[in-house]
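# step 3/5: fold
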Amino acid sequence: MGKTVLITGASRGIGAGTARLFAENGWSVAINYLNSKKKAEELETLLKSRGHNAFAVKADVSDSAEVKKMTDEVFERFGRIDVLVNNAGIARQCLFGDIDEAEWDKLFAVNVKGVFLCSKAVLPFMIRQKRGKIINVSSIWGLVGASCETHYSAAKAAVIGLTKALAKELGPSGIQVNCVAPGVVATGMNSGLDEYAVGRLKDETPLGVIGNASDIANAIYFLASDKADFITGQVLSPNGGFVI
């Protein structure tokens, strides 16, 4: 039986690129989305047209009932979840003094609680089969922090801490937990950057370019592959040298 991956926030950007890469390598792919139903279903249709197994499934990853419903639907459709990619996330740039409690809670609910709930939902199966991989998507700002993105940086740093702790706990069960911390990537999340800001970011990156979704998808897929079976609790940061 082929392997199955569940990718949260997979309707566009890094998530969609990751879904395409897994599908092209023979995986059954569960495409989680919340608001982008049309994009998720278009991706499902595209992958199916190419002979791949794909399934778009809606869930708010910060809601435990919706997460359970999502994972139940994936198990019903594919019978297994071998790899979980916790990619769903939100961000907002603003001064620390302008962050209110509701916004702080929302950032942590999606970016951190979502990782907790989705991981907890798939673990019983992974523990029973003594094998599985969880790959959490953080950010370089979780490593070094970003001005005017305090709540986002704090949440992404929490994802790194969760990754390292959970890797130690699940290692004896044969489960690897790793983290990908992307640098600046040309996705919808960064679409608000003007030409000047993009140029500055390129200048500050040793490789002289900003990344794209496939750069991050390749890192995620590597950690999901058998080639990474001896890797756990690590942070892989494809960032063009922006953070070293």
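# step 4/5: annotate
The first strand starts at residue 4 and ends at 7.
# step 5/5: archive (pending)
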